[in-house]
């Protein structure tokens, strides 16, 4: 979490806050026109505050930048019933990674067929709930899931699936959130052949319909290049699958990971560049003679929820020690080497 430290009686730097945030010399911060002090008084602290207009704007930006793609909001970034309603109203799908997220979405009225279920360790409950509620697609993340899922679907059933592949690309803001390389727990590697092996096993299960390949390179990616490299790898695999099995996959899911600034001046992913460089006729290299292009799917999460939200705390104590100032708040603690802090606000990730 990034904490914004606001020196007394000066305006705060609101560059990473929701666009509607305003400040006054007296420190009267507002978001969406509502004074934060009023929210703290009414709802108590700590409290998460989301700017609905910003969430909707960000979702629309995606829809407009990628008019031919399917945009799934990655629920793990932040989910509540209002977020589900806004996703439905803005025409987005949902990416969920647990039965709990799925149930929340569906009981809020979200159409289950617009939901994609992820997870590297799906529990029997996750799979049962997904099948019971009629989830659109399930993303296979390990070989053992194939037989389990096929058995749960039953010989007369039908379930659309994708396979999460690991393209062997290192990208992301920190090694712990890089999931495009072979040495981590998500997905099936293209390099060692596990992905291809899993695909063949899925093709042997008539009740499972393989609709596409998925990859998620990691989070806090601020360059377009890794995405373009990932498309090339996935498209290469699609072409080989076509040659070897006559398989034409209609979907290519590039996951999320679009980086945002946590502090003023930090880089963010240039969405327009991503959309422009991928082009509206995305992804060209996948063109197989006489076959339609795969449809692009993207799964932005943090980039929608993060800049649209703040966490509001009350300061409980301020302590100067050595070169540091410790600010204890009622939802955690912030440390700074800078001048004393009179307020703290934390953009949510
Ligand atoms: C499969 C998948 N899709 C999408 C996302 C969303 O990533 P971000 O919030 O960085 O956009 C994640 C995050 O971990 C993920 O695992």
Strand content: 15-25%
- Determine the CATH topology of the largest domain: TIM Barrel
CATH architecture of the largest domain: Alpha-Beta Barrel
Instruction: Write the H/E string, N to C.
Output: EEEHEHEHEHEHEHEEHEHEHEHEEEEE
| Average pLDDT figure | 89
Strand count, sense and barrel status of the largest sheet are:
8 strands, parallel, barrel
CATH superfamily of the largest domain: Alanine racemase
Rg value: 22 Å
Bound molecules: pyridoxal-5'-phosphate
Number of helices: 10
Distance between the termini: 7 Å
Number of strands: 18
Please mark out the parts with pLDDT under 50 across 5 or more consecutive residues, or reply none.
Answer: 1-9, 338-349
User: Which shape, going by the Cα principal axes?
Assistant: elongated
Percent helix among the residues?
25-40%
Structural class: alpha/beta
* CATH top level label of the largest domain: Alpha Beta
Q: Please give the order of strands in the largest beta sheet.
A: 5-6-7-8-9-11-12-13
Q: Give the tally of structural domains.
A: 2
What does this structure look like?
The protein is an alpha/beta fold and 349 residues long. The chain folds into two domains: 81 residues, no CATH class; 254 residues, TIM Barrel, CATH 3.20.20. Helices cover 30% and strands 22% of the residues. It has ten helices and 18 strands. The strands form four sheets. An eight-stranded parallel barrel has the order 5-6-7-8-9-11-12-13, surrounded by six helices. Strands 1-18-14-4 form a four-stranded antiparallel β-sheet. Strands 15-16-17 form a three-stranded antiparallel β-sheet, with no helix packed on it. The N terminus and C terminus are likely disordered. The structure holds pyridoxal-5'-phosphate (PLP). The site of pyridoxal-5'-phosphate has 16 residues, from helix 10.
């Amino acid at each position: 979490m990034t904490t914004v430290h606001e020196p007394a009686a000066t305006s705060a730097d609101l560059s990473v806050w929701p666009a509607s945030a305003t400040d006054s010399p007296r420190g009267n911060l507002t978001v969406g026109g509502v004074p934060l002090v009023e929210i703290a008084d009414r709802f108590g602290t700590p409290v998460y505050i989301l700017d609905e207009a910003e969430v909707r704007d960000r979702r629309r930006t995606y829809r407009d930048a990628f008019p031919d793609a399917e945009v799934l909001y990655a629920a793990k970034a932040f989910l509540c019933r209002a977020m589900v309603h806004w996703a439905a109203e803005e025409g987005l799908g949902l990416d969920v990674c647990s039965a709990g997220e799925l149930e929340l979405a569906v009981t809020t009225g979200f159409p289950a067929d617009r939901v994609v279920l992820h997870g590297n360790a799906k529990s029997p409950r996750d799979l049962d709930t997904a099948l019971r509620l009629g989830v659109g697609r399930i993303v296979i993340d390990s070989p053992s899931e194939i037989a389990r899922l096929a058995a749960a679907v039953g010989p007369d059933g039908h379930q659309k699936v994708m396979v999460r592949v690991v393209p062997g690309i290192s990208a992301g803001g920190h090694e712990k959130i890089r999931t495009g390389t072979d040495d981590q727990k998500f997905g099936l590697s293209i390099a060692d052949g596990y992905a291809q092996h899993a695909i063949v096993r899925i093709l042997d299960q008539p009740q499972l319909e393989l609709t596409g390949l998925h990859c998620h390179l990691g989070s806090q990616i601020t360059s377009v290049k890794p995405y373009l490299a990932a498309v090339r790898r996935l498209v290469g695999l699609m072409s080989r699958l076509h040659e070897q099995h006559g398989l034409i996959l209609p979907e290519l899911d590039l996951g999320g990971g679009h980086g945002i600034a946590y502090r003023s001046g930090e880089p963010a992913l240039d969405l327009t560049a991503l959309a422009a460089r991928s082009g509206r006729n995305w992804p060209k290299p996948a063109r197989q003679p006489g076959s339609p292009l795969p449809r692009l799917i993207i799964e932005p999460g943090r980039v929608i929820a993060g800049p649209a939200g703040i966490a509001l705390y009350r300061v409980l104590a301020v302590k100067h020690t050595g070169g540091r100032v410790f600010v204890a708040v009622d939802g955690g603690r912030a440390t700074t080497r800078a001048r004393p802090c009179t307020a703290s606000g934390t953009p949510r990730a």
